[in-house]
Amino acid sequence: RHKFWETQPVGQFKDLGDASLPEGPIEPPTPLTEVKHEPYNLPSPYEWTTCDLDSEDMCSEVYLLLTNNYVEDDENMFRFNYSKEFLRWALHPPGYYKSWHIGVRVKTSKKLVAFITGVPAKIRARDTVVVMAEINFLCVHKKLRSKRLAPVMIKEVTRRVHLENIWQAAYTAGVVLPTPVSTCQYWHRSLNPKKLIDVGFSRLGARMTMSRTIKLYKLPDQTVTPGFRKMEPHDVPAVTRLLRDYLKQFVVAPDFDENDVEHWLLPKEGVVDSYLVESPESHEITDFCSFYTLPSSILGNQNYSTLKAAYSYYNVSTKTPWIQLTNDALIVAKKKDFDVFNALDVMHNETFLKELKFGPGDGQLHYYLYNYRIKHVLRPSELGLVLL
Ligand code: YNC
Ligand code: MG
């Protein structure tokens, strides 16, 4: 059933019940001298290219490929529209490898028609911290689908990850593959209900009018938590300590150091927003919340072309109740003109989703590890990892 995935070192469906299989790497590293030194063969009309996102022209080519061909919802009403600034941020974390930003061009026209990326990350599974590749932005042009290009791209990124002596990877997808570590759900909190209904993102509830709906989702103009403020560069050490301590409790989570926190969590205009609570008495950093900006193109609507969405990222509550902390995040997102605030049911998110009027989305997000077995399927609340 999965002609490609059945050949790969990933948990297989037939092994799901087998308690005798150990946790950890599925196959050992091969000596680096045995890693293929030549790229995999593409069908002859195509050639490999390495994409330098620092080049304005390359970044625009990647941006346009994804804008026109990347992930859509099941009903093909919306398509992710990652910004160029976002792509540069997502692909240039500490220690990134240029060689992991892989494109495919048509030889004759040089048109970019496919893309896949990896970035390095330290990820902890139970007690073991493993250097992994986070694989993302796999995309094949709509006109080249179902030609088995994706397996070649996955094998090529795997080869280039192996060349850096890295043997595991983490990735998420909307499709079911062998085999999910966990299956999560997106929840959506309307900030601009009229627009969401007008574009078909949501529907008027039964026995609801537009004005009652607008009132239902209304938020205060100002945050309520004393000491709630934007994260600043000098907060990196305190936020790192807070987040590391929080993420310890999850079965799978990133192992962030200060450089990672500086990159992934310091606010970046139009890309990532982070807020914290500094105790007015002790000046301790007690709570933290963050979200990233990922608009979607609205396909074929007369009135609107973009849905402005915020995605919940990493959050920590030690003093401020989860509901109050996240409500303050909703208030700032609303002020910044986001139409919707999305969150997965990972970490402690279940404790605020229903209370804060998030509604469950359709479609699921499956989390996967490559060449690493986890003995049981995890509950979403056991996951401490958010990929972009
Ligand atoms: C997918 N999303 O099952 P089998 S998520 C992985 N992730 O193989 P073809 C996928 N595999 O089942 P198409 C996949 N989608 O026969 C499909 N597959 O074993 C598998 N969509 O290939 C599929 N982006 O080329 C099948 O399919 C084989 O032309 C079929 O291309 C697929 O970024 C795709 O949703 C997704 O652009 C490129 O549909 C295309 O359809 C497309 O005939 C819209 O492929 C955009 C989209 C995916 C977003 C993402 C994470 C990707 C993870 C890849 C796996 C990484 C493994 C770890 C590598 C490093 C290891 C180390 C160390
Ligand atoms: Mg294909």
Description:
The protein starts with 45 loop residues before the first strand and ends in an 18-residue tail after the last strand. Strand 10 and strand 11 (285-293) form a beta hairpin. Strands 1, 3, 4, 5, 6, 7, 8, 9, 10, 11, 14, 15, 16 and 17 form a 14-stranded mixed sheet that branches. Strands 2-12-13 form a three-stranded antiparallel sheet, covered by helices on one side. The protein folds into two domains: 5-171, Gcn5-related N-acetyltransferase (GNAT) (Aminopeptidase, 3-Layer(aba) Sandwich); 183-382, Aminopeptidase. It has helices at 56-69, 84-91, 149-162, 193-198, 210-216, 236-247, 258-265, 322-335, 350-353; strands spanning 46-50, 78-80, 101-106, 112-125, 128-140, 168-173, 182-190, 228-230, 252-254, 272-278, 285-293, 296-298, 306-307, 309-312, 316-317, 340-344, 359-370. The model has no long low-confidence stretch (mean pLDDT 98). The chain is 22% helix and 27% strand. The chain is globular, with a radius of gyration of 21 Å. It is built from nine helices and 17 strands. It has 388 residues and is an alpha+beta fold. The protein binds tetradec-13-ynoic acid - COA thioester and magnesium ion. Tetradec-13-ynoic acid - COA thioester (YNC) binds at residues 2-5, 69-71, 133, 135-140, 145-151, 154, 157-158, 161, 166-169, 171, 173, 175, 177, 370. The site of magnesium ion (MG) has 8 residues, from helix 3.
